[in-house]
Amino acid sequence: MSVHVEALRLELGERCLLAIPHLHIAPGERVALVGPNGAGKSTLLRLLGGQAPAPWQGRLQVLGQTVTSGAALPRDLRQRVAMVHQGLHLVDRLSARDNLLIGALSRCQGWAGWRAGLAGHYPAAIAAQADAWLQRLGLSALAQHRVDRLSGGERQRVAVGRAALQRPELLLADEATAQLDPQASAQACQWLDQAVARGSLISVVHQLDLLPRLASRVIGLRAGRVVLDRAVDDSPSLQQALRELYASEPDVHPFDGAGAQEGAHAWVRA
């Protein structure tokens, strides 16, 4: 299993952020986490990445390794799990190319290789992969630009490329299309799929029109609990289930941008 959860409960103060009796995600699955604001989507993603906001109870295995509450992921597991954070977490003073190459640090052999990577001296094969991803992401002309001088959408593409250079077995993407226009968002779904190759992809999705492109399985959360878990298809029953998932907050539109919101509602209505 890529992810195995049993009797999970995570509380922060008096608030229960997650309460999941069981959840299993198989190797190679493409899973979308959906739900209203505050449902626990990003919290679950952070938990799987070893960044839970508070101690938790229960059993959690990621890529076959047991994860302990209050502890970071073991180093060897961190090398196999990549995350595209909602806040991106790029190094602003570095170029787009150097930010991509940071993703490959864990692939540098030994202490000497890691130090060489930190100094910007990467093996030729890794450097070539970074250049190939810059081209794929439409960033070749911006390769040497500092990322703090790039647009939000360009920075988001850099974050996807950095994750790809890590060659993860599990990729966690928290609203990885949020700052992209509709055309780039659709393209980003392919980039994320390619970035994790044969591994598993778990994405927090607010643009529901992207579901068929990003995932074969959708998990809906409300108040930290799984209330929807089924295959992604174009059936009326799924569209009705998604409407009901968001019905408790009718005035909240969890879609980014007018175009994305329109497209999402159109897909759910279809």
TrEMBL record:
The UniProt keywords, alphabetically, are: ATP-binding, Cell membrane, Membrane, Nucleotide-binding
Domain of life, source organism: Bacteria
One molecular function GO term is: ATP hydrolysis activity
InterPro entries in UniProt: AAA+_ATPase (IPR003593), ABC_transporter-like_ATP-bd (IPR003439), ABC_transporter-like_CS (IPR017871), ABC_transpr_LolD-like (IPR015854), P-loop_NTPase (IPR027417)
Please list the coiled coil stretches: none
What are the residue boundaries of the ABC transporter domain, all occurrences included? 3-248
What PROSITE patterns does the record tag this protein with?
ABC_TRANSPORTER_1 (PS00211), ABC_TRANSPORTER_2 (PS50893)
Q: Please state what the protein is called.
A: Phosphonate transport system ATP-binding protein
Organism equals Roseateles asaccharophilus
